[in-house]
Each structure stands twice: as structure tokens, then as C-alpha cells.
Design goal:
four-stranded antiparallel beta sheet; disordered C terminus; disordered N terminus; Jelly Rolls; alpha+beta; 8 strands
Length: about 200
């Protein structure tokens, strides 16, 4: 059973295992501008065009969209060591479908989007194709998860992927991202404390 949860965890942000990001990490660490975003500050507003690729060095960011009632839906997360950027829309130079917001005080190393991609594609000509394919596969896997995994299973997948973050991330953000209520998350956490993986 543990191997099952471990496999799910590996797929959580699966683009990391499908794309060689060493060149991008090296580029950010060598040339990236250190920028600090305070809690609640936007890296990108929904509707704007992406201008940066940011490597999260500390803290974490959330991707958000507004619901019809004006409330926020968390549609993605970028943790320490991950990139926060609107890759697909940025490549096409069209408006972002989601905002990027610092959930806590977050430090990033930031590069201009176009410059970073040009540098990467010089050394890895297929980077855009490989990255786009990996992001599509990750998003499709997450869509399937909503149909085939119970809320408790989605929660376990997340905490196995991010054991150091799961206890510090805001419960309401995590519940929104995993697509269930804050109250349901509390019930799952209580159940997990008793060693029960069912809902």
C-alpha cells in the first residue's frame, strides 16, 4: 500500500520528472534576480501576459482564478524548488488564465520569460515541446484524479509529495486546491491521525 501512495506522490507535479530542468535551474541560480514577494503580493495577475520565470527559493505560491461569486479558487501550487510561471500562455504571448500569488513571504530568483526560453532552446532545441507535453500530462492526470481518487486519496497524494510543506500550508488553500471543503479536510486529517485512509 505504501508503494501505491509513493507512486501517486511521484506523479503530483510530474513535469519535474519528465523535463530536464537542470539548465533552467542553473540559469536562474546564475543570472536570476532575487525578488521577495510579501504574503498576498501578485507575481502575475489573471489577464496579464507572463513576463518572468521564477524559481521559488523559499515560501510558496498559489495559482488562483476567480469564481462567479468573486471568491478565489486555488488551481495550482508552486513550492520551494519549483518554478512559478504561466508557461503555455507565456510561450504564446496571450493573457494568463490564472493569477500567481505569494501565499507567504516568498523569495524567488527571476528571469525574463523570453530571455530564459531563448537560452534554454539554444542548448535544448526540443525544450518547448517536451515541457508542453509534460505540463499537459500533469494537468490531465490531475483531472483524472478528481474522478478516480477519493478526497482522502488526493490528500494522501499531496502530503506524500510534500511532507515538509503539508503541515504549514494554509488549510483553506489546500482544501480549495484538492477540490473539497475546509471541513472535509479537517475530517480527513482527523481520520488520518487514526491511521484510516478512507473518507
Amino acid at each position: 500500500m505504501r508503494r501505491f501512495w509513493k507512486k501517486l506522490a511521484e506523479l503530483f507535479n510530474s513535469y519535474r520528472s519528465q523535463v530536464n530542468l537542470a539548465g533552467l535551474i542553473e540559469l536562474c541560480e546564475g543570472e536570476g534576480k532575487p525578488v521577495i514577494y510579501e504574503k498576498g503580493e501578485y507575481l502575475l495577475h489573471q489577464g496579464d501576459i507572463e513576463r518572468h520565470i521564477s524559481l521559488v527559493k523559499s515560501g510558496y505560491c498559489r495559482y488562483t482564478c476567480l469564481k462567479s461569486d468573486g471568491s478565489e479558487a486555488v488551481v495550482g501550487l508552486a513550492m520551494t524548488g519549483e518554478f512559478v510561471t504561466d508557461f503555455n500562455n507565456g510561450v504564446r504571448r496571450i493573457p494568463a488564465l490564472a493569477s500567481q500569488v505569494a501565499s507567504v513571504r516568498t523569495e524567488v530568483l527571476q528571469l525574463p520569460f523570453v530571455y530564459a526560453l531563448q537560452k534554454l532552446c539554444q542548448s535544448e532545441p526540443n525544450f518547448l515541446y517536451i515541457a508542453s507535453d509534460a505540463i499537459f500530462r500533469m494537468c490531465y492526470t490531475r483531472l483524472l484524479d478528481l474522478y478516480i481518487l477519493s478526497p482522502a486519496e488526493r490528500y494522501c497524494k499531496f502530503i506524500d509529495a510534500y511532507p515538509d510543506i503539508a503541515s504549514t500550508i494554509k488549510a483553506k488553500e489546500l482544501a480549495s486546491y484538492l477540490q473539497f471543503s475546509h471541513q472535509h479536510l479537517l475530517r480527513i486529517k482527523k481520520s488520518q491521525g487514526k491511521g484510516d485512509k478512507s473518507d
